[in-house]
Amino acid sequence: KQEVTQIPAALSVPEGENLVLNCSFTDSAIYNLQWFRQDPGKGLTSLLLIQSSQREQTSGRLNASLDKSSGRSTLYIAASQPGDSATYLCAVYYGGATNKLIFGTGTLLAVQP
Amino acid sequence: DTAVSQTPKYLVTQMGNDKSIKCEQNLGHDTMYWYKQDSKKFLKIMFSYNNKELIINETVPNRFSPKSPDKAHLNLHINSLELGDSAVYFCASSQAYGTGYTFGSGTRLTVV
Questions:
Q1: For B47-62, b where at least 16 C-beta lie within 10 A, e where not — what string?
Q2: Cα(A26)–Cα(B11) distance, rounded to whole angstroms?
Q3: What's chain A's average pLDDT?
Q4: What mean pLDDT is reported for chain B?
Q5: Is the minimum CB–CB distance between B95 and chain A shorter than 8 Å?
Q6: Over chain B (112 residues), what is each successive 10-residue block's mean pLDDT?
Q7: Is the CB of B98 less than 8 angstroms away from the CB of A32?
Q8: Which of A2, A23, A54, B36 suits a disulfide with A73, CB 3.0-4.6 Å?
C-alpha cells in the first residue's frame, strides 16, 4: 500500500532557527514529490516540486531534498520567521496505474516571535 | 486572477439536501481533481478528469457525482447529504499527470 508519513506531526520553534521537516513514503517508485503549505482556513500553496531524477530543489529560504531509494524527503527552512507558521504537506505522485497524488499527514509548524 | 477558483467558499446545509460545488481553472490545464480534507486535515483524492474524461474514481459513495462540461471546469454534485460529508473539498488542476498541482482555496461544507 502506498502511504506517506510526515514527522513530526507538530513543531514549535523560536524565530530564527533553522528546521527540518521529514517525509517518508513506502513505495519508492515515485514520479515526483511536491511540498505544499496550508494556512489555517486556506487552500494549498505549492512550495517546491522535485522530480524523481532530482536530488534537491531550492526556493529562497526553502530547500527540499529527495532520496528516492530510501523513500525520504526533507524540507529545510532556514532562519524561520513567524510568517512561516502553517501546516506543511508532502505529496507524492505515482504515475502508471496509480496516477494520483498521495498526501502525507502534515506537520503543523509554529514559529514563536 | 485566480488560477483555480471554487464556489462557494462556505456551504452550510441540512441533511438530505442536494448541493453542488463549482470549480474553474484558467491555467489551460488538461487534468482536474477533487480532493476531500477530513477533520484530521488528511487530504484524499476523490476524482480526476483528463480533458473531460473520468480517469480516477476512488471509493466514493455514488451520491457524489462529478461533472466536467469542458476541460476548464469540474463541478461536484452531492445528493442526499449526510453529516459525515462535512469536510473541506479542494479542487486542483495540473497540465498533465506529474507536472505539479495547483489547488483552489477550498469549499468548507457543513451538514447540519
A1: bbbbeeeeebeeebee
A2: 36
A3: 93
A4: 91
A5: no
A6: 90 97 95 90 88 79 92 95 96 82 94 97
A7: yes
A8: A23
